Amino acid sequence: MAKEQSRVKERQGTKLKEPRRYKVIMHNDDFTTMDFVVMVLVQVFLKSQQDAEALMLQVHRSHKAVVGIYSYDMATSKVKKATTMARSQGFPLRLTVEPEEAV
C-alpha cells in the first residue's frame, strides 16, 4: 500500500482585524430627571457615582455625550436596557449608537 501524503496548504499573511466598536450617545431632553440619568449610568453603563454625575452634566450642557464605547451587540443591548428602564418610569430618554471613527 502506498503511503498517502497529506497536503495542507498554510495561509500566509493572515490578517486579524479588530472588530468595529460603537459609541453609545445619550441625548438631553427636558423631562428625564438628572437623578434618573445618573442611576442609568451607574446601573447600565457601570459608571462610578462621580463619573455618572459628571457625564450627566455633560449631557445636560452639551445636549449629548458619549457614555460608552462597545462592540455592536453590547452597545445595542445597553441602549435597549436603558430605554426600557426609562419608558417604565415614563421618561423619553434617548440613546443612539454610532460607529466609532477608524483611527
Summarize the model shown:
The chain is an alpha+beta fold and 103 residues long. The protein has helices at residues 34-43, 49-62, 72-88; strands at residues 22-27, 64-70, 94-99.
Give the topology string: H per helix, E per strand: EHHEHE
User: What separation lies between the terminal Cα atoms?
Assistant: 58 Å
Low-confidence stretches: none
CATH class call: Alpha Beta
- Outline, from the CA principal axes? elongated
**CATH architecture title:** 2-Layer Sandwich
- Count of distinct strands: 3
Domain module count: 1
Q: How helical, in percent, are the residues?
A: 25-40%
Query: Structural class of the helix and strand makeup?
Result: alpha+beta
Radius of gyration: 22 Å
Record the strand order, biggest sheet. Answer: 2-1-3
CATH superfamily: Ribosomal protein L7/L12, C-terminal domain/Adaptor protein ClpS
What is the arithmetic mean of pLDDT? 91
Sheet having the most strands: 3 strands, antiparallel
Strand content: 15-25%
Q: If helices are DSSP runs of H or I spanning 4 or more residues, what is the number of helices?
A: 3
Layout of helices and strands, plus pairs?
Elements: E1 22-27, H1 34-43, H2 49-62, E2 64-70, H3 72-88, E3 94-99
Helix pairs in contact: 1-2
Give a structural overview:
- The chain is an alpha+beta fold and 103 residues long.
- It has a single domain (22-99), classed as Ribosomal protein L7/L12, C-terminal domain/Adaptor protein ClpS (Ribosomal Protein L30, Chain: A, 2-Layer Sandwich).
- It is built from three helices and three strands.
- A three-stranded antiparallel β-sheet has the order 2-1-3.
- Helix 1 (34-43) packs across helix 2.
- The longest helix has 17 residues, at 72-88.
- It is elongated.
- The N and C termini lie far apart (58 Å).
